[in-house]
Amino acid sequence: MSAVCPGGVETHVALGDGRTAGSERMQGFSTAEDVAEAVVLAALPRDRSRIVQIVMRPMNEAT
Predict the structure, then answer these.
(1) 18: left (phi over 0), alpha (psi -120 to 50) or beta
(2) For the chain, does the N or the C end have fewer beta carbons within 10 angstroms?
(3) CA atoms within 13 A on the CB side of 29
(4) Is the pLDDT of residue 36 over 90?
């Protein structure tokens, strides 16, 4: 089993928390495409290893 933990993602759900598209509070959030790429990476078969967890963090997390 693998898990992808995307953190903040630019979606209508994130906008529902008082944020607006393009606002400073949304800077650095992952896009839905970023998350989709991580899911594909976790799902791809490997010969001798497996990805157990991918944690994605917003790039502006320090602010």
Answers:
(1) left
(2) N
(3) 19
(4) yes
> How many angstroms separate the CA atoms of 43 and 20, rounded?
32
Task: Name the residue type at position 42.
Answer: A
Q: Is 56 helix (H, G, I), strand (E, B) or coil?
A: coil
What residue type is assigned to position 1 of the chain? M
| 63 — pLDDT class (breaks 50, 70, 90) | very low
Per-residue confidence (pLDDT) for residue 17, from 0 to 100: 58
Q: Which sequence spans correspond to the domains of the chain?
A: 3-55
CA–CA distance, 42 with 40 (Å, rounded to integer) = 5
